[in-house]
Write a structure and sequence with these properties.
It holds the Pfam family Alpha-amylase. By secondary structure, the chain is an alpha/beta fold. It contains 15 helices and 22 strands.
Length: about 525
């Protein structure tokens, strides 16, 4: 099964790239109409692709009618959001201070915004234009379930749940007050998110229970309407102990099929060794039982591109690691052609996280460098638009790093990527066992094997020195000869050629996938181009 996940395209004032939603049931004008979206779904189904929507339950826009009604205390909407009275300033000035010390995530300063009309503060984990919905209000819970049902009726196949660990805050005390969060001790900057330990606002157990309810909604929808399983993906950057229950609880209640695995992003960098890769991969697999699938995420719209983080010279090898591991791979647009982060000036910055930091520190927080337009070809604006400008500047390397150029180069990153994607359809990768080997600091190996099918070895040199291996000393029962199945762009080897198992040499940063039998090569050019670039 293959599909694509769309970032928010709902009605929005666009204060945070569409994550500030003013209507959960309509399409933002510049993205098209609801008819356009239905046509997109129909075309996706024709191509055998699933359509996954970004579902943003934690908050709405302050322009949403719910918030406007809540500000006005309209009956039924008074508690749609998290409102609290201010605290009198101890200086006797009569000024009302925020209810407690909670701070925003990435936006700096208090997470409480004064509303003059209602004469209360409202809570916003993110920007002040994104007030948090009150998930302790059953009406809000049902309202957001109805949003899921609406889009299921439109025809989507599932949802990626944004900021899943942020929906519930600690229950208020008998006086309706929220406690302060304790200091972290990691920074003295009182406006920084890291100033506090977020024990009252992040990773509450109620968040997981809500995911179970949403999974049940999707299961019930399938029973009533038929069709394939609808998918839930969850976004949380927390530790494995927090992530594991999102799969299923100890009572057997099912949650998300895909709690996103960000550990290839958070735990690895350009200095990571093969031992680090093994530890990160094996520790994730340890929390995935036989009833669920692993997943692997190398990058997304919030973190630096993988070719920039880990090095462009490792791009093919890292793709081989991700795409030959068991389970689901998640590709952020541009990874398939090894796009890199783009330098964005402060004047060009549009990300509120960067803008809020000011000229001196914007680059440390801005996510704009990873969000630049996809590079299709070497024409004006990289073929991304027929217009005269783009929201963010196109990367300066678009003349050489683009789909058109790489399609014509059999050793390009794009064609390596396509070869790997095709390989994933083989029985060994669909049903086979797996193991990982850290040979030394530089060389990492993934073994995929299945009885009566080819065994495959992904062999990656993460370092800058030549490495020679006797694979017989590392993997049992290998034949004397293996065959190159996929090779990195800079490799001198040719797909289909043999190599002696006892003498496998990797040049600096070289990577390849070897197999035990020289079975018939499937056509990569026409078949994969039609499948992936139609």
């Amino acid at each position: 099964m293959r599909g694509f996940w769309l970032s928010p395209m709902y009605k929005s004032p666009m204060k945070d790239f569409g994550y500030d939603i003013s209507d959960f049931r309509d399409i933002q004008d510049e993205y098209g109409t609801m008819d356009d979206f239905r046509n997109q779904i129909a075309e996706a189904k024709r191509l055998g692709l699933k359509v996954i929507l970004d579902y943003v339950p934690n908050h709405s826009s302050d322009k949403h009618e719910w918030f406007i009604k809540s500000v006005n205390r309209e009956p039924g909407y008074e508690d749609y959001y998290v409102w609290r009275d201010g605290k009198p300033d101890p200086d006797g000035s009569g000024k009302l201070l925020p209810p407690n010390n909670w701070v925003t995530s990435g936006m700096r300063g208090s997470a409480w915004q004064w509303n003059e009309q209602r004469q209360q503060y409202y809570y916003h984990l993110f920007t002040a234009q994104q007030p948090d919905l009150n998930f302790r209000n059953p009406t809000v819970v049902q309202e957001m379930k109805d949003v899921l049902s609406f889009w299921l009726d439109v025809g989507v196949d599932g949802f990626r749940i944004d900021s899943v660990g942020c929906m519930f805050e600690v229950p208020a005390d008998e006086n309706g007050d929220f406690p302060d969060e304790p200091l972290s001790g990691t920074t003295e900057d009182q406006e920084d998110f890291d100033y506090l330990k977020h024990i009252h606002t992040i990773d509450r157990p109620e968040n997981v229970e809500m995911v179970y309810e949403w999974r049940q909604l999707l299961e019930d929808y399938q029973k009533e309407h038929g069709g394939d399983t609808r998918i839930l993906m969850t976004e949380s950057w927390s530790g494995l102990d927090i992530i594991k229950p999102y799969f299923r609880n100890i009572r057997g209640v099912e949650g998300a099929q895909m709690p996103f695995n960000f550990r290839l992003i958070t735990e690895l960098n350009a200095d990571s060794s093969a031992y680090d890769f093994k530890n990160v991969i094996d520790s994730w697999m340890a929390i995935v039982d036989d009833q669920h699938s692993a997943n692997w995420v190398l990058g997304n719209h919030d973190r630096g591109r993988v070719a920039s983080r880990l090095g462009i010279e490792r791009a093919d090898g890292i793709a081989m690691i991700e795409l030959t591991l068991p389970g689901v791979s998640v590709t952020y647009q541009g990874e398939e052609i090894a796009m890199i982060d783009v330098d964005i000036s402060f004047e060009q910055t549009v990300d509120p996280l960067g803008c809020n930091e000011g000229r001196e520190n914007y680059a440390a927080k801005s996510r704009d460098p990873v969000r630049t337009p996809f590079q299709w070809d070497d024409s004006n604006l990289a073929g991304f638009t027929s217009g005269t400008t783009t929201w963010l500047p196109v990367g300066p390397n678009y003349k050489t790093t683009n789909v058109k150029v790489q399609e014509a180069d059999p050793k390009s990153h794009l064609n390596v990527f396509k070869s790997l994607m095709m390989l994933r359809d083989s029985d060994t990768f669909l049903y086979g066992d797996w193991s990982t080997i850290a040979v030394n600091e530089q060389v990492f190996i993934i073994v995929r094997d299945l009885k009566s099918s080819d065994t495959y070895l992904t062999v990656v040199n993460l370092g800058s020195s030549v490495q020679t291996l006797n694979l017989n000393n590392l993997v049992k029962d290998l034949p004397k000869t293996l065959y190159y199945r996929v090779v990195s762009g800079g490799s001198a080897h040719t797909v289909g050629n043999p190599v002696q198992t006892s003498a496998v040499t990797l040049q600096a940063y070289e990577a390849f996938v070897l197999r035990t039998r020289r079975s018939e090569d499937r056509k990569m050019r026409g078949e994969i181009c039609e499948r992936w670039l139609a």
